[in-house]
Amino acid sequence: MKKYIPHIISMAAFSISLSTFYLTFHMEHNVDIFIAKYLEAGPDSTAGNHVITVPLTFTNRGAVPSVVQHMDILAEHLPTGDTEVFSARFFRKHNIIESGFVPISINGRSSYSNVIAFYAPDDGIKIMGRRGTYSLTLHAYNTLDSKPFYTKKITYSTTETGLRKFNNGWNYQFSASN
After folding, report:
1. What does the alpha-carbon distance between residue 60 and residue 30 come to, in Å, rounded to a whole number?
2. Cβ of 11: how many Cβ atoms within 10 Å?
3. Strand 169-176 versus strand 66-68 pairing type
4. Which of these, 82, 66, 83, 62, lies nearest to 74 by C-alpha position?
5. How far is CA 17 from the centre of its chain?
6. Phi/psi at 102 (nearest 5 deg)?
7. What is the DSSP letter of 60?
8. Nearest-CA neighbor of 41 among 102, 71, 95, 86?
9. Burial of 168 (C-beta count, 10 Å sphere; 0-12/13-18/19+)
10. pLDDT tens digits along 77-103
11. pLDDT tens digits for 48-74?
């Protein structure tokens, strides 16, 4: 029996080495997105359409890098049932969206934080100027397909104290209720 002990130890060490190699170099990306408790919505000062600014933190628990190609938010004003889709943009210039959303690259076992602006379409119904409760669903896509790899739904509410004057208009601060 003593002559098999070195073989058993070698097989155990080899198994541990293989699993470590997989976890270090080949584990698929596993992206999670954390949404801040507070966000703001208001009119865009250049075009007047609505914008939602959301502090987001992206984490990748996998070993392989991942890319977020596109993001949008489906906003629903719960009292009326009106909905509107807001698309992620990093900046606007003279009423023309410049290059749209810049893809976010997240290395393996790392994170990235930023405030992302989500713009309503120019011809949108502008639902974000209303007091009340909103259901916001964040969709993130890692390809240009129509199926998101990440979806998270959160309910936000405005309050009387959350309404502030901003550039001769309104600006809401939302707080999460779940």
Report:
1. 5
2. 10
3. unpaired
4. 83
5. 35
6. -85, 120
7. E
8. 86
9. exposed
10. 888 999 999 988 755 444 444 546 778
11. 678 888 889 999 988 888 888 889 999
